[in-house]
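Below is a filled-in request sheet from our internal design queue. Each sheet records the structural input a requester submitted and the sequence that came back. We keep these sheets so that new team members can see what a complete request looks like end to end.

REQUESTER: design group, bay 2
PRIORITY: normal
MODE: inverse folding
CHAIN LENGTH: 316
BACKBONE (tokenized):
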């Protein structure tokens, strides 16, 4: 309890400092970097949602791209095809992926190990194929543009064509999602997730309904992945079947492993570092994936618990 209280005392001022810095950043960078920072925040949300099921529950899912893409399409199709307002469409980008993640998770969490990886990959491939071939609804690989204007949230009126406004919207949503997940993983529910990760048989023996809790983690992670997809649609004003490709899941895997799984802070650092590295390398070479791959191999061999694990080891 004392250790937890000390960590909380340290967390609050650091978090406040980072949040205030993020609020101030758009006033010191141009439109390009405002867009870049917004995209980093979107992928941070995607990575921390993945970390809930991988880092905390021990489920390596390659199907998160399905929920990310569904979130983007739930937002875009609601507006383009059904004329629904951006506020309601954004809410659907959370609810529809949660519904689909319940369906996918119902079949997937019964499996373990490589079988779980394969079935989540299969669902992602099915979603990607449907997205590419059902062009009348999704626009296929060409995608669809999203006409966005002003949205009212209570007394606030947000112009979604203004990148700075979108940045602050994304910052608020990602911050709330981070605090929500942090509170969850520190709660008794989070301890159950961790006990399942550490020893699923022992968790079952002491009375936990393991499949129920794995499914719950899967649904929450799926909903937040969809929310990231919805934010990506707002940022780019665009959605395409490429968002459903299983390779999108690979982004979350890389960010989480490099930063440190099971920490929440790890995926945040991993996303910021890898995306910044890609951004600067692309000015000098085309094969950025090769460098990122080498970084991943280096981290796996030298720091299997990621950057956060490395810092924690140095601090002892």
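RETURNED SEQUENCE:
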């Amino acid at each position: 309890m004392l250790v937890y209280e000390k960590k909380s005392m340290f967390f609050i001022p650091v978090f406040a400092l980072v949040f205030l810095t993020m609020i101030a950043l758009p006033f010191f960078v141009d439109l390009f970097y405002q867009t870049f920072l917004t995209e980093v925040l979107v992928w941070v949300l995607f990575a921390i949602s993945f970390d809930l099921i991988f880092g905390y529950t021990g489920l390596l899912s390659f199907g998160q791209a399905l929920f990310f893409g569904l979130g983007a399409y739930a937002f875009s199709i609601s507006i383009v095809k059904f004329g629904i307002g951006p506020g309601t469409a954004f809410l659907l980008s959370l609810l529809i992926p949660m519904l689909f993640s319940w369906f996918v998770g119902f079949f997937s969490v019964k499996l373990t190990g490589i079988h779980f990886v394969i079935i989540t990959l299969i669902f992602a491939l099915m979603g990607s194929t449907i997205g590419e071939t059902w062009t009348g609804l999704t626009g296929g690989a060409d995608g669809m543009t999203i006409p966005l204007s002003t949205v009212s949230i209570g007394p606030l009126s947000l112009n979604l064509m203004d990148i700075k406004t979108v940045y602050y919207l994304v910052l608020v949503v990602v911050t709330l999602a981070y605090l929500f997940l942090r509170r969850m993983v520190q709660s008794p529910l989070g301890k159950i997730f961790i006990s399942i990760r550490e020893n699923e048989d022992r968790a079952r023996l002491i009375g936990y309904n393991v499949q129920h809790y794995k499914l719950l983690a899967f649904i929450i992670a799926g909903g937040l992945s969809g929310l990231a997809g919805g934010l990506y649609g707002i940022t780019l004003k665009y959605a395409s079947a490429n968002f459903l490709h299983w390779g999108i899941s690979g982004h979350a895997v890389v960010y989480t492993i490099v930063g440190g799984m099971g920490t929440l802070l790890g995926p945040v650092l991993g996303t910021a570092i890898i995306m910044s590295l890609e951004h600067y390398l692309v000015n000098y070479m085309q094969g950025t994936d090769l460098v990122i791959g080498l970084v991943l191999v280096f981290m796996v061999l030298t720091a299997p618990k990621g950057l956060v694990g490395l810092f924690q080891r140095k601090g002892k």
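SHEET NOTES:
- Residues 54 and 60 are 5 Å apart (CA to CA).
- Residues 210-236 form the longest helix (27 residues).
FILED BY: M.R.
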